[in-house]
Amino acid sequence: MFATKVKSFAKLNLCLSVQDVACGYHLLDGVAATIDIYDTICVKPRSDKLINVYMHGKGSENIPPEKNNAVKAGEAFVDAFGTKGADIEIYKDIPMGAGLGGSSADAAGVLNAMAKRYKIKDRTALKEIADSLGSDTGYLLTGGFARLTGRGEKVQPLNCPKRLNFLLILPKSDVSTAECFREYDRMPAPFISADKMSEAIGAGNFEGIAASVSNALQAPAARLNQEVEEALKAAEALSPSAYAVTGSGSCVYLLYETEELCRWAKSRYKGKCRTRVVRTVDPNKKSNTRWANPFVLTEEEIEAARENDED
To answer: How far does CA 236 lie from the centroid of its chain?
Structure first.
């Protein structure tokens, strides 16, 4: 039987602020957008209820199954809907430990692929499973531009008439999310509402978007990781319209008005980190149905995913 193949996209946090702490969780307010880097998820059904996940690329082969959110997603799907299991191949292109949502994207991709394979259309139940697996997972079921609140599980889709262009600077070392939040708690930042970013996104106002870029976890990430600090200094020197850490790091993104400016900056970056030019992608615009799965791959794309790597 042929495998079901889907794309699962990375994300950038265009703004991120900590609003409060409740029941041990940091309550957030921010805006995220998916970008055109994706992991490829291939699901082939089994005759039993087992979930087997095979990781490929970016060092993902070393993730223990008990810590792999893709495994947890598959098992939770079978438990919730009583379906058969699956053999799942994941071809990584999203850098790991970068704050780009790779683990959450894999879990969301598994849920989307299994829902398509087993013809499950209860998106509310899928969202509940996704939210139990990680803060970004429910959002990455659909991606696009969205305002995220609560622990990140409250998703308000936003429509942006513009595509945004970025240069990514990708340090080799990561930042522990737990340590980053502990460091934030030691020196918290003032709360910044995502209202202005949301309004600028809806209007396609580039200057307003650039002016609203911020991340409360940026300073803690830089204190914990010297490569992040160096990437931020390099970003400032390249005169972007805005720049910031995404998530808890370690990736630093630079916002420019055009792809050509991104490539100009890439050519002038002299640091030791890898770089990559990306742009936003909104998969929801490919379908008139908000909850439809827009991530299906062609055979050519799946072959390219096996061969693709960063610049």
So the answer is: 23
